[in-house]
Specification:
The complex is a heterodimer of chains A (112) and B (114). With 112 residues, chain A is mostly beta strands. Chain A is built from no helices and eleven strands. In chain A, the strands form two sheets. In chain A, strands 2, 4, 5, 9, 10 and 11 form a six-stranded mixed sheet that branches. Chain A is globular. The model of chain A has no long low-confidence stretch (mean pLDDT 95). With 114 residues, chain B is an all-beta fold. In chain B, strands 2, 4, 5, 6, 9, 10 and 11 form a seven-stranded mixed sheet that branches. In chain B, strands 1-3-8-7 form a four-stranded antiparallel sheet, with no helix packed on it. In chain B, a hairpin with a 2-residue loop joins strand 5 and strand 6 (53-57). The relative contact order of chain B is 0.33. The chains are: A mainly beta (112), B mainly beta (114).
Chain lengths: 112, 114
Amino acid sequence: EDQVTQSPEALRLQEGESSSLNCSYTVSGLRGLFWYRQDPGKGPEFLFTLYSAGEEKEKERLKATLTKKESFLHITAPKPEDSATYLCAVQAVGGGSEKLVFGKGTKLTVNP
Amino acid sequence: DTGVSQDPRHKITKRGQNVTFRCDPISEHNRLYWYRQTLGQGPEFLTYFQNEAQLEKSRLLSDRFSAERPKGSFSTLEIQRTEQGDSAMYLCASRAGGTNTEAFFGQGTRLTVV
């Protein structure tokens, strides 16, 4: 069964203190790995899709990387407005399934 | 606003009542998904439509749940005889056709069963 584990569950940073969030996955074959940001009471907001090991994508202070077993979301010099829950999800190839399998998320708090 | 729209945003209902939620996807997206999210958890897949055809359903989708997408446009999710365990955020997402496309989520409907 496809599985996604995110760590840590929660992370507190000072403004400007860079760090990384981890997403470990087990999937029969990876079609895509997705990162979303979710603010309290809102729906997930799309950030990145990664398709193959070695791929990297960047957006402002965020950079996502992918290996065969895990993905990292690197946050450089975070600001308080980066505080949110970051969700990782995978989609498997084969079987005709369209579903995304999500992890529980990492709740990031950035203090000024 | 050209994003995914969900209505209502919040719903409080008594146990045993039926509720229906609506999702309007991004207009050119032919794929539509329903997910459920409880506190502290990631979204869990419920069902998937391609155009008007319901192609995939999770075993989480019990007999009390039914979803439709008439004419391949908006979708509805109905829960009959609601239970307290149905309390959750119900999220709708849509996705364009093609291989490498992204799913965009609506703001969700928060259901509270009292």
